[in-house]
């Protein structure tokens, strides 16, 4: 291999490495944003669930509150 060929390959590898570093940082930022979005959505879901429960309590009793059927 000639010196020129090695330098060209090294330059190409350096460019690929720089591109990959940038891509990894971009993906890492995206994952962090998505994690925050998921947490916000989870909190909103919990709040909506609580509001729905407060507005219309369930008519179904818990198992320990139910009277046993007559055949017991």
Descriptive notes:
The protein is an all-alpha fold and 72 residues long. Helices cover 74% and strands 0% of the residues.
State the secondary-structure class: mainly alpha
**Which stretches are poorly predicted, pLDDT < 50 over at least 5 residues?**
none
Distinct helical segment count: 1
Give the terminus-to-terminus CA distance: 90 Å
Mean pLDDT: 90
| Percentage of residues in strands | under 5%
Q: Give the C-alpha Rg.
A: 30 Å
Order of helices and strands: H
**What is the count of β-strands?**
0
Sheet bearing the most strands, described?
none
Q: Helix fraction? A: over 70%
Please give a quick description of this structure.
The protein has 72 residues and is mainly α.
